[in-house]
Amino acid sequence: MKKTNFIAVITTIMISFGVYAQGSQTPVNITSVSAQPSPAQFTLYSGLNATFTFSTQNTQNAQFCQGSDVCNLPTASAGAYAYTVANTRWGTYKLNNPNAGTCAPNITFGGQQYCLLEFHFHGPSEHWVNNSATDLEVHFVYFKLADATGPYGLCNADSLLVLGQRMVGGYATNSAWANVFNAIPAVNNAGAYSGSTVSFNIASMMGMANFNTAPSYRYSGGLTAPISIATLGAASTCVANTDPANSRPWWGNPQRQLTVGAYPQIVSWVLFKQPIFLSNAQVLQFKSVFPDGNARAIQPVGTTIYYANPN
Prior knowledge:
The structure is a single chain. The chain is of the alpha+beta class. It has a single domain (6-308), classed as Carbonic Anhydrase II (Roll). It is 13% helix and 27% strand. It has seven helices and 14 strands. Strands 2, 3, 4, 5, 6, 7, 9, 10, 11, 12, 13 and 14 form a twelve-stranded mixed beta sheet that branches. The chain has a two-stranded parallel ribbon with strand order 1-8.
């Protein structure tokens, strides 16, 4: 397996902005779909059926604006998505893959190899289906290896692949998720790694034996949070305050992202129709740590949403 620099991946991730139409923003309310009779296939994902150990992180107090960033982040004191401390608006519970740089675990989607970087949660669900949200949503974030090691970094519309599942409480305790929810770290002053790890089986948690027969909603969209240039650090051909001469996608500093109201659109989204069933207690484990919620409001649908593998 070709080894890539994990730090380089982190410093180039989420760096496309501006070229793609703002109409492809995420998340969306899925009310109308087009049949996708020949969807891109998943291959070589059986490796997810193993035990993995990831590092835990609570990013609620992570400094969103750093260094030379120029931004005055808004706050909202009331409403469904209230947040009184600007930097907490995009905080979440993340489980980070220490082996992402070696592309393990990985999957192949549409003939391209993707490496699992991390997975994280939103509450309530970011995606709505037929005007309805659920308690939580989990996002498994993969990066395309060819882009991460290429000359432009993760700059293309499919540079990231996010496998999402909505999560519903009110059922029996889901033992496959017990270790994950029991390990949610407390808030710290910097959003640093907690120093703890958790072991789990991703295939068991997702509850799908075959990705290619599981119904899913698919579309080309973007991130659901802005990203700081200073967080990225190293220069990239896709990062600029003005359009670079090579006409590659670009994004401005966090203030511009917030002002324009559009975040980098580099994600192939696969939202599986089948939700994950949890107990109310498991849902509360997350919501008690993130009581103000951390879901971006739904955006206008400006792209085709395909429905793959109906059954």
